[in-house]
Design a protein that fits this description.
The protein has 156 residues and is mainly alpha-helical. The protein contains six helices and two strands, in the order αααααββα. The chain has one domain: Four Helix Bundle (Hemerythrin (Met), subunit A), CATH 1.20.120. Strands 1-2 form a two-stranded antiparallel ribbon. Pfam families: MST.
Length: 156
């Protein structure tokens, strides 16, 4: 079945998957040095966008939906810290961590209905909201990354 004619859940999950692929694709063809290159005043680099996306998967699915404490997940305390790759991180290690987090998120989501609710800062959140939020957040960051990668490739 095509995402264009699927039911609501398949559409939401399909759109999340498209954005996950776009995030991982930011690192295609880059060297580790290029992936860490800062072209803007913020901490945003192609590599940091993927480390942040790993954080996002873990916060929204692993923590909020599955209820695993943040400390147990070993994720940064702040959003800003999630944009800082470790010195030893490489494209390969960051992609492996991202893909692993995405796979765990898929398993967690599959265990719930769209209407199921989970704790949020401002009240309960449905899985439907979490999927919609992921689509928006990953799409925004993929767009940021597209621009950075375009600049990096143009400077070759």
């Amino acid at each position: 079945m095509s995402i264009h004619t699927a039911d609501e859940r398949a559409v939401l999950e399909g759109l999340v998957e498209r954005q996950r692929e776009a995030i991982a694709g930011l690192l295609d063809g880059l060297t580790d040095e290029q992936a860490r290159r800062r072209l803007v005043p913020s901490l945003t680099t192609p590599l940091s966008l993927v480390t942040h996306a790993t954080f996002v998967e873990k916060v929204w699915f692993h923590h909020r939906v599955a209820g695993v404490p943040r400390a147990e997940l070993g994720i940064p305390e702040t959003v800003e810290e999630s944009f800082v790759p470790a010195d030893e991180d490489t494209i390969e290690s960051v992609l492996e961590a991202y893909r692993s987090a995405c796979e765990r998120s898929r398993v967690i989501a599959a265990e719930h209905d769209l209407e199921d609710q989970f704790p949020g800062h401002h009240g309960p959140l449905s899985l439907r909201f979490v999927l919609g939020h992921l689509i928006a957040e990953l799409a925004r960051h993929a767009g940021h990354g597209d621009i950075l990668v375009e600049q990096i490739r143009a400077a070759r």
